[in-house]
Write a structure and sequence with these properties.
Layout (H helix, E strand, L loop, with lengths): L1 H22 L4 H7 L3 H7 L4 H15 L3 H10 L8 H12 L3 H10 L8 H12 L3 H10 L8 H12 L3 H10 L8 H14 L4 H10 L8 H12 L10 H10 L15 H6 L7 H8 L1 H8 L1
Length: 297
């Protein structure tokens, strides 16, 4: 009998707390997910819906955002609700020399950032990449998850994948901090396959990625769209060697290969759908035609 009563009670308590979270402004799905966090549940299960809502509102005031933004941060990282956020913001400002807005942006972009030991973060980045406080702070602001990486492991992984020096690996990461979080073996497998389509050797791919780290984050879909642009060029450019085309594109790799006002459509697919719009890359290549012909001679 007592076992039956205990089962009913244990089943009732989470449902009661879930209803409290819903009344505090969380969606049913979000409140259900928060129940899985023992840390959040232990600290909040005895609070009223009004108490939780008011607490989130006070946090929102510190970050100068609305309460829904804070609910999203809590859902991403439940311990976020329990931090002293005035202390969090001041600690980030002191360590990284950020403004209030920069500190808030870093935290809300990556809520676990609020719980880091930031002096240790800065010192770890400086030691691993041989950079200044300013460079470390800039890298973290560009990509807050960067603060949580094992940077020795990052450097060693890049060196192994690209066959480069510590200095080359560090420069690539500091140029584009997101580079640190990529699966570089996977990147090279994908880009080597794409490279074969345009006659680019693997060594060149490695070298170009180290020079232009954002290349590593592009999807196969984007690269295929670039190749599609090449195929759509006027017949007048057919005598231009591939290496010249590739070389020009690498210097302008950030130009979009997708048709404007469509959801990342390749130009050939857009034409099939009756859209005659041209990607920015196609227009740029056409404008460069005289230069390309000169280089091809």
């Amino acid at each position: 009998m007592w076992q039956s009563i205990n089962i009913r009670i244990s089943a009732w308590i989470p449902m009661s707390f879930q209803q409290t979270l819903v009344e505090a402004g969380f969606s049913p799905e979000a409140s259900s997910k928060l129940l899985d966090s023992e840390h959040f549940t232990a600290r909040n299960r005895n609070k009223s819906a009004i108490g939780i809502a008011e607490h989130l509102f006070r946090i929102a005031e510190i970050y100068n955002v609305n309460s829904d933004t804070i609910r999203k941060a809590v859902l991403t990282h439940p311990p976020f609700a329990g931090y002293d956020h005035t202390r969090v913001i001041n600690g980030i400002k002191d360590t990284y020399k950020y403004t209030d807005e920069q500190a808030a942006k870093a935290v809300l972009t990556h809520p676990p950032f609020a719980g880091y030991d930031h002096i240790r973060v800065i010192n770890g980045i400086k030691e691993a990449y041989g950079c200044t406080d300013e460079q470390a702070a800039k890298a973290v602001l560009c990509f807050p998850p960067f603060a949580g990486y094992d940077h020795t492991r990052v450097i060693n992984g890049i060196k192994e994948a690209y066959g480069c020096t510590d200095e080359q690996a560090a420069k690539a990461v500091l140029t584009h901090p997101r580079f640190a979080g990529l699966d570089h073996a996977r990147v090279l497998r994908q880009q080597t396959k794409i490279g074969r389509l345009v006659g680019v050797e693997e060594d060149m791919i490695r070298n170009e990625i180290l020079k232009r780290p954002p290349l590593a984050g592009y999807s196969a879909k984007r690269y295929l769209a670039v190749i599609d642009v090449f195929r759509q060029l006027d017949n007048a450019l057919t005598d231009v060697p591939k290496e010249h085309m590739v070389d020009w594109w690498l210097k302008n790799f950030a130009t979009s290969p997708y048709v404007p006002d469509m959801k990342r459509e390749r130009v050939s697919h857009a034409i099939e759908k009756g859209n005659t719009g041209e990607p920015g890359l196609l227009k740029a290549l056409r404008r460069s035609a005289p230069k390309l012909r000169v280089k091809a001679q």
